[in-house]
Structures are given as C-alpha cells and as structure tokens.
Amino acid sequence: MKVIQASDYQEMSQKAAKYVIKNVRRQPDIILGLATGSTPKGLYKQLIADHSQNGTTYEHVSSINLDEYIGLPAHDPNSYHSFMDEQLFQHINIQPHNRHLPNGETDRIEQECMHYEALIDAKGIDLQILGIGENGHIGFNEPGTSFASQTHVTTLSESTRQANARFFDSIHSVPKQAITMGIASIMKSRKILLLASGPKKANAIRRLLDGDIKESFPASILNHHPHVILLADNEALSAAI
Ligand code: F6R
C-alpha cells in the first residue's frame, strides 16, 4: 500500500481530486467506484470546481456506488441517492444512465444484490474511492464480514448507526440495514484510493498499517490488493507514525 500524507482535510481533498482528475482525463470512459459520508465531500467539491473551471468532462464516465440504505426512498434527503445528487452528480455532466447505486427500496432485495454484483463484473471498476469506518468497515462491511462476500444485505452495527446519526433527526431514524458491495466486490477494483481524515480515524489507520489481515478488521484486506493508495491527513496518521 502506498501511503500519501496530507497536512489536513483540505490538502487531502485537493490531492485526491488531482489523482481522480488525472485518471478521468487519461481514460474518458473510466468506471469510478464512489463512496458517500463526510470524507469524500471535499474531493467532490474539488471535482465540481475543476469541471466548471477547466472543463474536465464526465460525459462518458460511469459510476458505481458502494452502498445504499434499505427502506429509504431514493428521494429521501438522507438516502445515498440524494447525497450523490447533491454532492456531485447534479454539478457535473455525468449522464443519468451511467450512475449506479443499489436500489434499497425494492422488495426483491436478493435479486437486487445479484443484479448489482453482475453490474460490477460486467463494467469492472477502474478506480474505487473508499472511506474507512472507525471500526475498520469499508462500504458497510462491518467487522466479521467474510472476505469472500459479494454484494449483500447487511445489518449496521450500533457504532456505525451512531456515527451516521448526525445526518438524521435521531438515532431511531437511522436505517438498520443496507445493501453494500461485499469485500470481494471491492477487491475486484483495479485501483483503490482510500481516504482518511481526522483524529477519529487514527486508530483505524494504525490498525490498517499494522498489516495484520483479519476479518474482524475489514479494511485490513486492502493490504492484499496490488494497487491501493492511502491518502490520509496528519491527524488520521497520528497514531501510525
Ligand atoms: C460510504 C461508506 C462508508 C464510509 C465510512 C466513513 O459509502 O461506504 O464505509 O466511507 O463509514 O464515513 P465518513 O467518511 O462519514 O467518516
């Protein structure tokens, strides 16, 4: 794993954007794997600024998101569909038919998981953007998830629901389940850019860089991937160095 240090969140976001833009320009029909959450917001802001100032085009780019809550309508302000629309999609020229997120509203959920995994296989993710949970989750793959997992339904841990409660009225409104790419699905990506910022992530980054690969710490599998960049700020790296 290649580690790149940034001084703070702003610099991490700028460096991440530079890397993503370089890849998009080099491969105009790139398939991007995208994440939600607080961490990539600065990256998305930079991509939007670059799109309007420098004209980087997303006309032929496709995106495949990591996850979506089960039971929230796509138009709910807290759905990941809404998040992606607001934070990125409506500000760049990525085509609606090229944007993919799991459908958390369907009652044929098993079929949706199979369909989503088939999409990942058919398209092939060129560059996956990842955040990391304080407990080491990637996507919504909580500790204990099989490294062989494909897209599946997962029950969110109490700590993940609490971490995400800041976006909702109360913890009771946070959905209990989500559809997520599995760990094996994520590992199929050609390249992975893992972002981490702030002191709350320091312990997870220390454990990741310890190199001990075990299912009780999902992100540890990334040590097995041939092309991962960890781009983290000083605070996230503070326990590792
Ligand atoms: C988001 C996702 C999650 C987040 C992780 C970190 O699509 O799959 O794994 O990346 O929970 O979240 P933040 O960035 O809010 O700290």
UniProtKB/TrEMBL annotation:
Keyword Hydrolase found: yes
Pathways involved: Amino-sugar metabolism; N-acetylneuraminate degradation; D-fructose 6-phosphate from N-acetylneuraminate: step 5/5
An example Gene Ontology molecular-function term: glucosamine-6-phosphate deaminase activity
Keyword set, alphabetical order: Carbohydrate metabolism, Hydrolase
E.C. number(s) listed in UniProt: 3.5.99.6
Active site: 67, 135, 137, 142
Pfam families reported in the protein's UniProt record: Glucosamine_iso (PF01182)
Domain Glucosamine/galactosamine-6-phosphate isomerase: start-end pairs: 10-224
This protein's record includes keyword Hydrolase: yes
Record InterPro entries: Glc/Gal-6P_isomerase, Glucosamine6P_isomerase, Glucosamine6P_isomerase_CS, NagB/RpiA_transferase-like
Catalytic activity as recorded in UniProt: alpha-D-glucosamine 6-phosphate + H2O = beta-D-fructose 6-phosphate + NH4(+)
Coiled-coil parts of chain: none
Gene Ontology cellular component annotations, sorted alphabetically: cytoplasm
One Gene Ontology biological process: N-acetylneuraminate catabolic process
Task of the protein: Catalyzes the reversible isomerization-deamination of glucosamine 6-phosphate (GlcN6P) to form fructose 6-phosphate (Fru6P) and ammonium ion.
HAMAP family on file: GlcN6P_deamin
Family recorded in the similarity comment: Belongs to the glucosamine/galactosamine-6-phosphate isomerase family. NagB subfamily.
Protein name according to UniProt: Glucosamine-6-phosphate deaminase
